[in-house]
Design goal:
With 264 residues, the chain is of the alpha/beta class. Helix content is 44%, strand content 9%. It has helices at residues 8-20, 24-39, 51-64, 83-93, 98-106, 123-135, 149-153, 165-189, 225-234, and strands at 44-48, 76-78, 112-117, 138-143, 156-159. The protein has a 5-stranded parallel sheet with strand order 2-1-3-4-5, sandwiched between helices.
Length: 264
């Protein structure tokens, strides 16, 4: 007997997606701000439980690797991925401390902690948010329906209005990809070479012309950290200039970059 696949799941997702569109400006602001901070030497820490842990690791993979086009790598750490640390902390201090203790170890003022939770009520994420604020970090959250404790404990939150956890997780992945898109666009514009408020680095170039702590060009016009990395990334796969040195000649530095493999 032939059966028809139930499309209720698809219908629920489509309905939730319409309301989710309203979060686009905030997610774009997150991506742009994150590019400034990470370009200034700050770090992104991400955490979640279960399926949300997978989403957290998806985001860090896109930033350390790449989302779409080639660009420099940026510092992003999924806190659950260090199994030795998480199990040791859970064993010695309790599950509630697994993310808070790692946040205290790795987080610095100006860093960002992004927490993902379908319920918005996970005790270990709430403890991490509290610890991050004590360190002077910024806390963002991706959650399910509002209001919820994690939303209230974060500086800003994107709350998915959906009754089913699976739909919430699916839209969290949409948010991750939208954030990465905004991040990459900001890097391409050179936003990552400009400091963010509260980010690491003074933003001023050194008097001797060396690049400033935020990576911007120094007084002598030398490129900043991000500028140098972008320039290096653009030369990947190119061969040294030929004898003639003519621009655009085979083997010249003007040859196009060969695209790498797409991300998984």
């Amino acid at each position: 007997m032939k059966t028809v696949t139930d499309t209720t799941h698809c219908d629920d997702l489509a309905k939730a997606l319409e309301a989710f569109r309203d979060h686009a400006p905030l997610i774009e602001r997150w991506g742009t701000g994150l590019a400034r901070r990470l370009g200034s030497g700050a770090r992104l820490l991400v955490a979640g439980n279960g399926g949300s842990a997978a989403q957290a690791q998806h985001l860090t993979a896109e930033l350390v690797g790449r989302y779409r086009d080639d660009r420099p790598p940026f510092s992003a750490v999924a806190l659950h991925a260090d199994t030795s640390s998480t199990t040791a902390i859970a064993n010695d201090y309790g599950v509630q401390e697994v993310f808070a203790r790692q946040t205290a170890a790795h987080g610095r003022p100006g860093d960002v902690l992004l927490l993902l939770s379908t319920s918005g009520a996970s005790a270990n994420l709430l403890a991490a948010a509290e610890r991050a604020h004590r360190l002077g970090m910024t806390v963002w959250a991706l959650t399910g329906r509002s209001p919820n404790p994690l939303q209230l404990g974060a500086d800003e939150a994107v709350c998915v209005d959906a009754p089913v956890a699976a739909t919430v997780q699916e839209l969290h992945l949409v948010a991750v990809h939208m954030l990465c898109e905004a991040f990459d666009q900001a890097v391409a514009r050179g936003t990552a070479d400009r400091p963010a408020d509260g980010a690491a680095g003074s933003g001023e170039p050194a008097a001797d012309g060396r690049p400033g702590a935020d990576g911007r060009p120094g007084a002598g016009g030398r490129p900043g950290v991000v500028g140098r990395l972008v320039g290096r990334a653009r030369t990947v796969g190119r061969t040294p200039p030929g004898p003639s040195g003519a621009s655009g000649a085979p083997g010249s530095a003007g040859a196009p970059v060969t695209p790498g493999e797409g991300h998984a």
